[in-house]
Automatic annotation (TrEMBL):
Cellular component GO terms, alphabetical: mitochondrial matrix
GO annotation, biological process: protein processing
Naturally occurring in which organism (per UniProt): Phyllotreta striolata
Obligatory cofactor(s): Zn(2+)
Pfam families in UniProt: M16C_assoc, Peptidase_M16_C, PreP_C
InterPro entries assigned to the protein according to its UniProt record, in alphabetical order: Metalloenz_LuxS/M16, Peptidase_M16_C, Peptidase_M16C_assoc, PreP_C
Protein name, per record: Presequence protease, mitochondrial
Family under the similarity heading: Belongs to the peptidase M16 family. PreP subfamily.
Keywords, ordered alphabetically: Coiled coil, Hydrolase, Metal-binding, Metalloprotease, Mitochondrion, Protease, Transit peptide, Zinc
Residue span(s) of domain Peptidase M16C associated: 506-753
Compartment annotation: Mitochondrion
Highest taxon above the source species: Eukaryota
Stretches assigned to coiled coil: 564-594
Length: 1026
């Protein structure tokens, strides 16, 4: 996948805030007798060809770090020992392309298509179902490529090491795999040489999808323009117009030059022994190479400009977004510090938070509060991914005649900061967030560390200093004390006197898509123009050869696999206590909370009117940003930032475990704080619960505009999620309610509401919702705390509950909190929708209503979804059709969903979904017990997801899935057999269940969307959600 790992963000440097994607599990723990071999490592000692350069403790993360150099190849190795069972391994390479052909990205895909030791078609995806990995992926950033995985099973760890190491150092790199993953000319019907030629390829379609999101266009162009002289001046993921210029020979040569051990950085984390890994890496791979100086991959510092520059670019008109005259973006960016300077990079992150985050920050006051935009762009912040850091302030949804206003405000704000500095409380609130985050543990801690350190490690061996967060904070506090103008001087240096300044504006063009389509057609004509009959025959034969390879049975027996014994028969149970405190049902989860108190609450919303329910997402966005009876919004925000992690509100739909269409509607609230601040956290929540007036109409109007802007951004990047939501809402009452609150329907509703309702009326309704919900009779609570200070924490909590207001309505948490929803469906056909979105790829989904969680068939359907994803949908959608992704999943409400992502096709994909039950029936005899077991492994990756302390016990609290119910589900999953799967496919996915089926396509208008011949389907075309 192509990704800016980390990238620009409004968040801080804090390494444990990094977000990773992947699957998670806690498999059966394996005790390793020599798991404490970390004590054997000493600086200056040699271990299996590696020299230990540094062995150091990092107390804030309870880590012992071992930094080693392979003596023969100079490969760098960093091991972070921590008593964490979720172990991580990764191989990183510095990859620095000088053209936008997508070379490192396509190589990342292709090396995972088979290797010398594992000559299996697509071993990466095959291992997804032969492993209990908590994370498996590969990522291409602007200047490095990484191959990380994580697991808690030691056998799995060694298996995946073998597959990953062989993939990166000894890949087959077959031309057919390059054609499949990168690009190829192929006939639209590969079996018919008289059909039209077209361009296909997984990465080709992926990048078309990436740049269907305007923010991605802006972010990429910003980097290219600010850093034009080397690798950052090109698109590492690939520009669709340039990808077809890449050759297979280019790919092979790039691997030879960049995937050498001397250019590698190897990472491991967790509590597994290190010595066996060093021994294997050295003996099987590194010892067989000679040192190859990686000078050719080094990235030089960008030469600084003498004068600022300005550029105007165009982007796609977003039919879901703001009015055309507001679809403009404006930004100012600076090239600032050397990111290998750890302290300066840390301070730039800190300074960025001070400048832009929250209502007490200077740029929020000057740019956001005046309400002439849709808020910050996603590229706003400090980006430490490149060799030279980038600071950006940008606004989205700005009228062109407000551009000059933005420029003046920016310069005036910088001058004001240089003159007056920052409020001490504001500085303390940011420092507090850093210190709190050091103690807060996430479930993918080792991966988050890897993602955080990789940008600096890519250019420097000074990686350990980045982990010493307490030292960095201490040094910053000292600098602030010694020099009161320390931060102001940095602002002046980097944001006032810095000539390397780029002003970038982006405006929507209604002809943008047509121009892209023409560009693609011209490119295709150019590729075809010089082809001889012999060339065309060769293309035809290559297409048939690729199709034959795709249809060949995979030799999965060559890959390592776990056994049934590796799946624990028993789930991990959490010590908890349940009680009722003054009518508030409370669940105390006793965990190792590391000095933090975690609070979750659900407020039942059953007494809200339908119109109030539709306003609930907006309520969640604004209610804690409008001030309280005692404090202005700025005072309140300052208090929240100095004492807690922040307040979180979200609408909640809890599906019934026992009945279809039935759900618990609610408002989910949560926060966490250091134990010493627990009284303050309860005071903060008490202020929220006792809000009795909301008067700041101007601020409310500004918040609504920000909400709407955020609501309509990112649809293309998450198109498959919206498609699944919309399709599920056609068949399930609970899913329909979710779609109303977070899907395309909600966007449409909010647009209509803003066109027909005054802001004063909306604000009054927000207050009415607060008065209905904020009382203890509506509330149930979960607390995750350590046992050491349990009594004072619970005493403080009891005082908080006793002081909460009582209900003004009769319904309480002791009454029935579930409702049953209804959905409309046509009498004799499938309900289908085409949501028209002007993007060059499609997002398709089919939803089938099946059974609730506790039904005996649920476990069987869950295994069936995984089997279809790996054995049928992945080969059909990705390998053959060129979609970036696709699969099937079973949701908690009993909806069985098919989906595709960044898909060049639409109706053909729906046909693939429809044929799934026939595929099961046709291939029933070929399905082996091994196939079924692999599907079970895939399911248990998510069933046994690793749970951080903050979330332990919360599945029972949120979804009422008790340990006994969950244990019964485990047993049912393990007992599924082939006969069960065949029966499920026939019963639920076949024609007999047609009236419980819905289909959705999100994509552009197209001649291919000819639904007239689909007589069993009733299609509705949604031209514009407004």
């Amino acid at each position: 996948m192509w990704k800016k790992v980390g990238g620009n963000s409004l968040a801080s440097l804090n390494v444990i805030r990094r977000i990773s994607r992947g699957i998670s599990n806690i498999p059966k723990r394996v005790e390793i007798s020599d798991s404490t071999d970390i004590n054997l490592f000493k600086p200056g000692q040699k271990y299996h060809g590696f020299l230990a350069k540094h062995v150091e403790n990092i107390p804030e993360f309870r880590i012992t770090a071992v930094y080693l150099i392979h003596e023969k190849t100079k490969a760098q190795y960093l091991h972070l020992y921590r008593n964490d069972t979720n172990n991580v391994f990764s191989v990183n390479f510095r990859t620095t392309p000088l053209a936008s052909t997508g070379l490192p990205h396509i190589l990342e895909h292709t090396v995972l298509c088979g290797s010398e030791r594992f000559p299996v078609r697509d071993p990466f995806f095959k291992m997804l179902n032969r492993s209990l990995a908590t994370f498996m992926n590969a990522m291409t950033a602007s200047d490095y490529t990484m191959y990380p995985f994580s697991t808690q099973n030691y056998s799995d760890y060694r298996n995946l090491q073998k597959v990953y190491l062989d993939a990166v150092f000894k890949p087959n790199l077959k031309e057919l795999d390059f054609m499949q993953e990168g690009w190829r000319l192929e006939y639209t019907d590969p079996a018919n040489a008289k059909s039209n030629l077209t361009i296909k390829g997984v990465v080709y379609n992926e990048m078309k999808g990436v740049f269907s999101e305007n923010e991605n266009i802006l972010g990429q162009k910003l980097q290219n323009l600010l850093l034009p002289d080397h690798t950052y001046g090109v698109i590492s993921g690939g520009d669709p117009k340039d990808i077809p210029n890449l050759t297979w020979n280019d790919l092979v040569q790039f691997h030879k030059e960049h995937y050498h051990p001397s250019n590698s950085r190897i990472y491991s984390y967790g509590n597994f022994p290190l010595l066996p890994t060093l021994k294997y890496v050295d003996e099987e791979y590194l010892s067989k190479y000679e040192y190859f100086p990686p000078k050719h991959t080094e990235v030089p510092r960008q030469k600084r400009w003498n004068e600022p520059k300005q550029q105007d670019i165009l982007c796609r008109y977003d039919s879901f977004g703001e009015s055309f005259n507001k679809q403009n973006t404006v930004s100012i960016s600076f090239l600032v510090s050397d990111t290998t300077n750890v302290y300066e990079t840390f301070v730039m992150h800190f300074l960025t938070e001070l400048l832009i985050k929250g209502p007490n920050s200077p740029f929020y006051k000057s740019l956001i509060e005046p309400n002439f935009s849709g808020g910050y762009t996603t590229s706003t912040g400090f980006d430490n991914q490149p060799r030279d850091g980038i600071f950006t302030i940008g606004l989205q949804n700005v009228r062109k005649n407000d551009f000059n206003k933005f420029f003046k405000i920016f310069d005036d704000t910088i001058d004001d900061v240089i003159k007056n500095g920052f409020e001490p409380e504001h500085i303390e609130s940011v420092l507090h967030r850093y210190e709190l985050s050091v103690k807060h543990e996430t479930n993918n801690f080792g991966l988050n560390l890897l993602f955080a350190i990789s940008p600096i490690w890519n250019h420097s061996d000074n990686v350990l200093n980045q982990l010493r967060v307490n030292e960095l904070i201490g040094r910053l506090r000292s600098d602030l004390q010694e020099d009161p103008r320390f931060l102001q001087n940095l602002v002046e240096k980097f944001l006032k006197r810095n000539k390397h300044r780029l002003t970038l504006t982006m405006s929507a063009d209604k002809e943008f898509d047509a121009k892209l389509a023409k560009q693609e057609q011209d490119l295709l004509k150019q590729k075809i123009k010089g082809l001889s009959d012999k060339d065309k025959q060769m293309i035809f034969e290559k297409g048939l050869e690729l199709q034959a390879q795709q249809n060949e049975p995979a030799k999965t027996e060559l890959l390592p696999i776990l056994t049934i014994e590796d799946i624990s028969s028993e789930l991990e149970r959490v010590e908890k206590v349940k009680s009722s405190l003054n009518n508030v049902q409370t669940q105390i989860n006793k965990v190792n909370a590391n000095g933090i108190v975690y609070f979750k609450g659900i407020l039942n919303t059953i007494d809200l009117s339908p119109e109030q329910h539709m306003l609930l997402p907006l309520f969640c966005y604004v209610i804690h940003k409008l001030g309280t009876n005692k404090m202005t919004f700025k005072q309140f925000d300052s208090l929240v930032s100095r004492k807690t992690s922040g307040l979180s509100f979200s609408s909640y739909i809890g599906e019934s475990l026992f009945h279809l269409h039935t759900y618990e509607p609610g408002l989910l609230i949560n926060s966490y704080c250091l134990e010493k601040n627990v009284d303050s956290m309860w005071d903060i929540w008490h202020q929220i619960f006792t809000i009795s007036k909301l008067d700041d109409l101007q601020r409310f109007q500004m918040l609504v505009q920000l909400y709407m802007s955020n609501l309509t951004h990112g649809i293309a990047d998450s198109g498959h999620v919206y498609a699944m939501q919309a399709a599920s809402g056609l068949v399930s009452g609970s899913a329909y309610q979710m779609e109303l609150l977070s899907g395309l329907h909600h966007i449409s509703y909010m647009k209509r509401l803003l066109n027909t309702t005054h802001y004063r009326g909306m604000l009054d309704e927000i207050l009415n919702i607060a008065k209905i919900l904020f009382n203890r009779n509506k509330l149930r609570v979960a607390l995750n705390i350590s046992t050491e200070n349990e009594m004072p924490i619970l005493t403080s909590y009891e005082s908080f509950v006793n002081n909460l207001p009582e209900a003004c309505t009769t319904t309480t948490q002791n009454d029935s909190t579930y409702v049953t929803g209804k959905v409309w469906s046509p009498t004799n056909s499938v309900n289908c929708q085409h949501h028209v979105l002007n993007v060059p790829v499609n997002y398709c989904s089919k939803a089938v209503l099946t059974v609730p969680y506790t039904h005996p068939d649920y476990a069987k359907l869950r295994i069936l979804a995984r089997l279809l994803s790996s054995k049928y949908l992945h080969p059909e959608l990705r390998e053959k059709q060129g979609a970036y992704g696709g699969g099937a999943r079973l949701a908690g409400d009993g909806v069985f969903s098919f989906f595709s992502y960044r898909d060049p096709r639409n109706l053909e994909t729906l046909d693939v979904f429809d044929d799934s039950f026939r595929w099961v029936k046709t291939n029933a005899e070929k399905l082996t017990e091994q196939d079924i077991f692999e599907a079970k492994l895939g399911v248990f990756q998510s069933v046994d997801a690793p749970i951080p302390p903050s979330q332990k016990g919360c599945e029972e609290f949120l979804k009422r899935v008790t340990p006994d119910i969950k244990q019964r589900h485990r047993v049912e999953l393990l007992s599924v057999n082939k006969e069960d799967l065949c029966k499920m496919a026939e019963e639920y996915l076949g024609p007999k269940n047609i009236l419980n089926t819905g289909k959705v396509v999100i994509g552009a208008k197209s001649d291919k969307m000819d639904v007239n011949k689909r007589v069993d389907e009733l299609w509705t075309v949604m031209e514009n959600v407004a």
